[in-house]
Amino acid sequence: MPEASARSIAGATAAIVLLTRLRDARHIPRLVLEQGSPTKTLVIWSSALTIYGYERLVAAILRRLGLTRMPSTLAAMLSLFAGLRAQQKLAGKDSSERIARILRPGVDFLGKWMGLFLAPPLVSLDASIKALPPYSQGVWANAVALLGCGWTATHSVAAAVASRFVPANSTGSKPTAAAQKPALPAAPAKTNGSNGSEEVPLDEAVRRAWVVLGAVGYLGVACSSMLPGSLHRPVGMLCELSTTVASFSLAKLLPDKAQRVLHPLVICAVSSNLASRYVGPVAPYFDNGVGVGDRLFQWLPAAVTGLGVRMYSTTDKWLDRPEDFKCVLATCGASGCFSILATAMGAVAPQSPLSVPPPLALPMLHRSVMSALGIEGSWAVGPECDPKLAVASILITGCIGASLGNALLELCPAVFNSSSPLVRGVSMGCSAHSIGTAGLISDGDTDAAAISGASMCLAGTVHTLVLQLPGVVPGIRSLAGLPPLA
């Protein structure tokens, strides 16, 4: 379709959406003011910026000390967790809880929108795939088989180790059918706001507001020939930003089971990719640190750092009792090492029947860790390991785990103690990271989800530390037939 025709159609559609949804413009202030309160908004952004600044400070300290191989996100997350625990031991739990409460609004905000910060690497995934050599169908079939078999093996190893070390008194019942089925949301109260309009929940107001802003952006791009040149870039950036946020928010309306197959992050990335093509060179999605994708991605380290507070808040599930911590630590250590070793032997080694070329094999090394650490790990392995392909393998693995994790445990009751929330949580966190954790939450398995959230951080820590060991990365590169890093 010619570009002019595409812009005309997009502009006409945007005009129709804008006319039919113009009433939703009243929700735009709620994007800035949390529940209409400047105070609450200030609290959220103050704590979020504090976490952002803390991660930047840790990164600067690591650079000053020459520890450039240590990911600043991991160091910031673990040091924040350790600091809260030390505060609890030295000054009492009330003192550490006070600090955690101060940071909690920012942690919740960053966690809620972490998908947005993860979307940018996937937006340009098509470019990474096009840059690959024209591999045969057999190579791609091997890659898919490796992802499926890799998740199965990692999940099984983690569950087996956890079942071996789980304390006998930690076994509990799985969530009932009633607990697994999320309660239907209550109908929004039809109270009138100060302007006489019906109030809607905040999440719905955010979706509606971004749809309106998106329509303005698309209409502006379609009519860019009538706008001053100085407005072309701002309108294009509004188009891209609104597409990223609105598509991510709207995708969350899909049923939980649908989201496990078609994750909101996938919908967000595809929509943002199409929007960046529509805008064209006027406002590149990635533009030397000032594009929409660059700006969103810059917040990912802060979102990961905030997980340190979440780990602290769940210590009663996995750390406070030595028996529980022994189980979690043994499982995370075993799965973190096994995942790298199994992928190196199965995907990287040319002797393996499922071996694939290094540009596909190396990103799979990071398939079982959260995306932020997978990106850091890709940089550690070398330029042949594309972080975008690593994020794609992580996403696919997480979706497989969220869909099949508990079912695999129940297939072998003689080997896996599926009745224990500790086993369910640690095996999911070690193999399917945040997406698997979200799957446990949607199933109502809250105890297992809390343990899974901590386990994915610990397993990712083990994974990162193993890659830092002398000889590991050179050995992997040698196995792949690549020269050592300079």
SSE blueprint and pairings:
Blueprint: H1 3-20, H2 29-32, H3 38-64, H4 72-91, H5 93-112, H6 114-123, H7 125-131, H8 137-165, H9 177-180, H10 202-222, H11 229-251, H12 256-261, H13 264-279, H14 292-297, H15 300-305, H16 307-313, H17 315-318, H18 322-348, H19 358-364, H20 371-381, H21 387-411, H22 421-442, H23 446-468, H24 472-479
Word description of this protein:
The protein is an all-alpha fold. The chain has a domain at 135-167 and 321-479. 72% of the residues lie in helices and 0% in strands. It is built from 24 helices and no strands. The chain has helices at 3-20, 29-32, 38-64, 72-91, 93-112, 114-123, 125-131, 137-165, 177-180, 202-222, 229-251, 256-261, 264-279, 292-297, 300-305, 307-313, 315-318, 322-348, 358-364, 371-381, 387-411, 421-442, 446-468, 472-479. Helix 20 crosses helix 21 (387-411). The model is unreliable at 177-197 (pLDDT under 50).
* Basic shape: globular
What class, by secondary structure content? mainly alpha
Low-confidence stretches: 177-197
Helix content: over 70%
Strand content: under 5%
Query: Over all CA atoms, what is the radius of gyration?
Result: 23 Å
**Main beta-sheet annotation:** none
> What is the element string, with H for helices and E for strands?
HHHHHHHHHHHHHHHHHHHHHHHH
